[in-house]
């Protein structure tokens, strides 16, 4: 029996060694030797019939045989599957891989970061404020009295609850009264000035709300960045310098900037700031004859971005109204400041050439993936 076992083992190992290394041949060999009705099973049966004195040695030999065989088959199998893989049996290396989908920042976040980075480089500090405000901060503190027509421009959503916040040391009307969603970031000017002394320059990014019907250029929620710089001797030319650095950094060094007189209750004088059109660089405001388009009718081609005006409005600005300083307890004779406010979506639309504000809020990854 012992000799027979050894003989069969030699033959089996030789057969495995010389067999084809594909899966099917190896599986056939496994069944032939190690299967339920295989050669080893037969040998174990025969061992049971041996006289008990011979059983232990025969049993040991059979176990060695089984182990050697299993090992030989495993080795052959793993080398063969490696080979198969390399040959392209399981893994076709010519197929494109499954790429990792990396997330990216939302275009609005990117734009806010770019705006803030620019002002941080000029010494501004980033500050935030509450989205739920009292009427006082959204309006009165900014010199927008109850009956003033300009209040309409900053209309907003009111909350049903009245504020119950009354903090000691502050007039009750600043903490109580109707609660609302802020319609601009300008209220943060008042919060900051109440709690800090000049000189300072701050930049305030955040969400704002307006009861506007949604269309390609309006949304009930959007983002603004507010700027405020106050010191003993700030001038309008400082505002101009700071905004000129900003517009060039944001839209390219050849970007031109112009100030148009305007009105905001919280600044005096006030201005609206335009940049030369990012698409036509202001070219389309001239006809072939070199005269401004509005003096000619007919021939001129109209730029889709500026409608042929050559200029795009990007923000409101001005020198802080002395009334605002008084409202926060500053002495308007001792301090001066400039302020500005811009819509982030508007900047992003101009920077990336986006045609519809709703795209920012629809969460369509086909749009978002491009940023
Ligand atoms: N708060 C204004 C708005 O929402 C924007 C603005 C204009 C802010 C002029 C300012 C400013 O700080 O000086 O339309």
Task: Give an overview of the whole structure.
It is a single chain. By secondary structure, this protein is of the alpha+beta class. The chain has two domains: 2-86; 107-129 and 183-368, Bira Bifunctional Protein, Domain 2 (BirA Bifunctional Protein, domain 2, 2-Layer Sandwich), CATH 3.30.930.10. 37% of the residues lie in helices and 20% in strands. The protein is built from twelve helices and ten strands. The chain has helices at 2-18, 23-34, 39-48, 55-87, 107-120, 135-138, 172-175, 187-195, 236-251, 322-327, 344-352, 365-368, and strands at 125-126, 132-134, 158-164, 176-181, 200-209, 221-231, 257-264, 267-276, 311-320, 336-343. A seven-stranded mixed sheet has the order 1-5-6-10-9-8-7. Strands 2-4-3 form a three-stranded antiparallel sheet. A hairpin with a 2-residue loop joins β7 (257-264) and β8. α2 runs antiparallel to α4 (55-87). The longest helix is centred in the first third of the chain and has 33 residues, at 55-87. The chain is elongated. The model has no long low-confidence stretch (mean pLDDT 89). 3,4-dihydroxyphenylalanine is lined by residues 184, 186, 226, 264, 267, 316-318, 339-341.
């Amino acid at each position: 029996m012992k000799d027979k076992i050894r003989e069969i083992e030699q033959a089996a190992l030789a057969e495995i060694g010389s067999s084809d290394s594909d899966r099917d041949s190896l599986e056939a060999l496994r069944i032939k030797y190690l299967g339920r009705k295989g050669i080893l099973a037969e040998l174990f049966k025969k061992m049971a019939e041996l006289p008990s004195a011979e059983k232990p040695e025969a049993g040991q030999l059979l176990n060695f045989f089984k182990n050697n065989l299993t090992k030989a088959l495993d080795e052959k199998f793993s080398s063969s599957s490696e080979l198969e893989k390399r040959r392209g049996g399981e893994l076709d290396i010519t197929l494109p891989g499954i790429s990792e989908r990396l997330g990216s920042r939302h275009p609005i976040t990117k734009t806010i970061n770019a705006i803030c980075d620019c002002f941080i480089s000029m010494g501004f500090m980033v500050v935030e404020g509450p989205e739920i405000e009292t009427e006082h901060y959204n309006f009165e503190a900014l010199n927008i009295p109850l009956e003033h027509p300009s209040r309409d421009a900053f209309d907003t959503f009111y909350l049903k609850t009245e504020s119950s916040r009354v903090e000691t040391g502050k007039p009750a009307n600043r903490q109580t009264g109707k609660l609302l969603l802020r319609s601009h970031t300008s209220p943060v000017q008042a919060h900051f000035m109440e709690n800090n002394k000049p000189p300072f320059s701050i930049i305030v990014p955040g969400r704002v709300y307006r009861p506007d019907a949604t269309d390609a250029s309006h949304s009930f929620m959007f983002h603004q960045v507010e700027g405020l710089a106050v010191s003993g001797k700030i001038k309008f030319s400082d505002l101009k310098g700071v905004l000129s650095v900003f517009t060039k950094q944001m839209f390219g060094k050849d970007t031109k900037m112009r100030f148009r007189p305007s009105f905001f209750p919280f600044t005096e004088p006030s201005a609206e700031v335009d940049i030369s059109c990012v698409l036509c660089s202001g070219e389309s405001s001239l006809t072939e004859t070199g005269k401004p388009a509005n003096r000619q009718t007919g021939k001129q081609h109209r730029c889709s971005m500026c409608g042929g005006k050559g200029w795009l409005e990007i923000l409101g600005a001005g020198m802080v109204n002395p009334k605002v300083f008084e409202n926060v307890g500053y002495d308007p004779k001792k301090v001066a400041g400039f302020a500005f406010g811009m819509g982030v979506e508007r900047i992003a639309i101009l920077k990336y050439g986006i045609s519809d504000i709703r795209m920012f809020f629809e969460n369509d990854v086909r749009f978002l993936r491009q940023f």
